[in-house]
Amino acid sequence: MLARLPATGTTTPHVQAPMPASAAQRAETPPPRYWQRWAGDAPPPRMPDTPHAPPMSLSQEASLDLDEPPFRVLIVEDDRAQALFAEGVLNGAGIEALIASDPADVLDIMKRVHPDLVLMDLHMPGLSGTELTAMIRQHEEFLHTPIVFLTGDPDPETQFAVLECGADDFLQKPIRPRHLIAAVESRIKRARAVGRRRQGGGERHPSTGLLARPHLLQRLSAALPAADGRGGVLFVEIEGAASLRERYGYAALETAMTEAGRRLARLAGEHPAARLNDNSFLVLVPDLAPERLEDYARSLRDGLAHEPVDLGADTIRLRAAVGHVALHHGFRDAGEVLEAAEQTARAARNTPIGLAAYTPPERAAPTPELAERLQRALAEQRFELAYQPIVAVAGGDEAQYQTLLRLRDEDGSLRSAADFVPAAEAAGLIPDIDRWVLERALTVLEQRTREHRPVRLFVPQAPRTLARDGYADWLAGEIGARGLEAPRLVLDLRLADALIHSLTLRQFCERLVPVGVQFCLSTYEHSAEADALLAQLPLGYLRLSARYAASNGDGALRDEMRLVIERAHRLGLQVIGHHVEDPQAAATLWMSGIDYIQGNLVQQAAGELDFDFQHAVL
Q1: In this predicted structure, what is the pLDDT of residue 302?
Q2: CATH class of the domain at 383-597
Q3: Is 212 exposed, middle or buried (0-12, 13-18, 19+ CB in 10 A)?
C-alpha cells in the first residue's frame, strides 16, 4: 500500500519580490476565518485552520475582528463534578464559563458579569431550577437572556414545566460535548443577533455606516425588474489589496478597507451601499438613468482616491476599479446582477481608466428542437449519474465518489456530459439539470445512510445555479429534512468558474458550510489569482488539473505541482490527483504528497457504487 508523505510547515503568503525584514514580519498568516470578518451577518463557516489545529468555535470567531466579546455562560450546578465537566467542555470551545454552585448567588453574579446564557440544573437544594428561572425573568435586564436546562430527569411533564416557567431549551443528560457546544453557541448567537436588531444595529455597519449585505441584496431584488429602464449597480474593487497585505499586514489592510467603506458611504449619500468581501463594495442606484452610470462610477473612483489613508508610518491612496451594470438587461434575480457586476469589475481592472460598463454576452441561440429534446429528457428522467471512486493513497475504507452526468438518448445510447452540456448552457437549462443532479445525489446519500453504508459524493455545480435566489436555502432544508450527517456532500466548483464568480460562491459557501456541506475546487492550476482563491473560500478539497497527472516527464511542471500540494496542505486542504491513467502517473503524484487518486487506473466510472475501498491497493 502506498503511504502519503506528511505535509508540514506553516502558511506563508506568496510574495512576488523580496521585501524588507520588517515588511515580511508584518505580512503574517491571516487569522482563521479572516475571509469572513466583513460579513458579520453571515453564518459561521466550518473549515480547518491548519492540518494540526482544531476548528474555531463560534465564540472565538465572534471575537475575531468583529468587536464582539467571547461568548460567556453561567453554569448553575450544585454537583461539582457535573459543573467542572460542563466548564471544561465550554472552555475547550473558547467559551468563557463561570460556575455558581449556590442558587442564591446567581442573581448577584448575573448582575456583575451579564452572561450570554445560563446553563441550569433542575434539582438543587434550597431553590429549584424552575423557581430560580422565574426569579431571573422578573428582572427586566435578564428578560431575554437564554436559559437552558441540563438535567437527567427524563419525565416529559418536567420538560413542559421547565419551558412554561420561562426556560428556552431542555437538554438531556448524558450529552455529547459537541451537542452541548452546538446548543449553547446557537442560542447565544441568535440572542446576540436579536439584541443588535432591538438596538437598531443590525442594518448598518457601526464603523462605516454601510448597509449589511443582506439588506442591500433585498433592496436590489426589490429593484428588479427595471421596467422603466432606470437603475444600476456599481461594483467597486479596491486595487492592490494583496500587495498592501504583504507589505503592511492584515490589520493595516483592514484599516484601509474600513476607511474605504466610510468614504464610499459618504460618496454614495442616499444610495444604499455595502461591503461585499475583503476589498469589494456594491452601490445600488435604483433611480439613475443608464447614461449617467459612467459619470457616477468616475465620481466614486476619484472620491476614494482624493485623500490619502494614514497607515501609521506610511500613507497610501486608494485606487479603485469600478464596473457598472444597468438593470434594464432583464436580470432574473440579484444573483445574476452580482455575477454581471463582478465580471464587469474584472474587465475594469484591465482598462487604463479603471472603469467598464456591462455588455450582455452574445450567446448562440439553441435550436428549438435541441432545447425541446433536453427538456423532454428532464421530464422523462433520462439523465443518469455515473460514479468514479476517489481512493486515499494511504489506505482506508471510507467510500467516496465523483458523480458524472450522463444522458440516455431516445434511441437508448448513453451520452457523456461533453456531448450535451454546451447545448444545455445555450438553452439556459443548466440550473434545472444541476438541481436534478443534486436531488439525485441527496437521494443516494439518504439511502446509503439508512442502510448504514455511508458514502461521500463530490457533485459538480455551476455558479449560475448557485446564484439563484433560494437555492442555498432549498439545499440546506433538504439536508435537514433528509437527516443527512455532515460531511457527506461535497460540491465541486471549477477553478475557471470560481475565479470569475468568487463573490457568488462565497455567499453560497457561507450559507451551506454551517449545515455540513464541503467544497472542492476542481481543475486547479497554479497562478497568483488561483493561489489567492485558496484562502478566500472555505474549501476542504483541491482537485488538480489533469495535466499534473502527466508531469512525470516535465521537471518544471512536477515542481509546480509539489508547491501547489504543499500550499494546499498548509491551508488544511486535501488534494486529489485527477485523470490518473497509468502507474507512473500515480507514482509521481504519490511522491509529490497527494492525498487521493481518481482516474481509470483505479476504476472507470460506473453506474453502481460498489468499489471495494477496504481492499484497494494502488
Answers
A1: 95
A2: alpha beta
A3: buried
